[in-house]
Amino acid sequence: MGIVWSNYQMKAYVTGVAHSTFQSHKFKTVTMQEIWKDIPVFDGMYQVSNLGRVKSLDRYVNHYAGGKRIIKGRIRKYSIDKRGYTGYIFSIKQKNRFISTHVLVAMSFLNHKPNGFKYVVHHKDNNKSNNNVNNLEVITMRENVYTHNKGTSKYKGVSWDKQHNKWASFIYIKNKNKYLGRFKNEYEAHIAYQKELKNLLL
Question: Residue 102's beta-bridge partner residues?
Answer without folding.
Answer: none
